[in-house]
UniProtKB/TrEMBL annotation:
Subcellular location: Cell outer membrane
SUPFAM superfamilies, per the entry: OmpA-like
Residues annotated as domain OmpA-like: 13-129
Protein name: OmpA family protein
Gene3D superfamilies: OmpA-like domain (3.30.1330.60)
Species annotation: Oceanomicrobium pacificus
Amino acid sequence: MIFRLMLLFLISAVPVRADDLGTINFDFDSDRLDAEALAEVERIAAKLGENPLYGTLVVGYTDAVGTTGYNFDLARRRAENTARALTAAGVPVSRIDGIQSKGETELLVAVTGPERLNRRVTVTLDDILAACRNFRQINITQASLGEALQEDLIRRATTARNTYAQLAASGGNGPAFQMAGAAREDCGSAVGYGMNERRKIEYSQRCLCSSARLSKALGN
């Protein structure tokens, strides 16, 4: 029970921080990216290239003109076209964590008529490290140690080791490869320490933290 509660803490109590990366605006009733929008896509792609520990979320919006259903579909098409433009600009598909439509539900300018600022796609980013900022925030105590935790540590160590080997074989050198290496070391150490050894708790915390970062880096 204690171990299950600890896992719930890891999943729910550590929110992933999202930051604005850029905004693309659209002409009225259009899902086409004009020259200005494509230039913004190139800027966003360049910024992502400088920050390998980020994934992206692409969200489309409309102004208040039109029906709710039509606007939801239009916003979705805007987001999808922006995501395609990002990949054409060199952003790997794996770095795009999600594509969403919010239609007319979140107006920047509260007007019922046409408004260019409301016709937009936002690109936000998630910091992989934000999946677990500090291993010490994971609530593992002496009472948490036991067979269930050890089995989970072994599973995580195996996953990290296999992932690292697969990425190494394919010439990987990105954030997932880095996170797999860290998780392989942390989880391997955690498995090796005995239940009564002082560092068992510390490396169990490190293992769960590194595993969370690896999962984020892989887009899971």
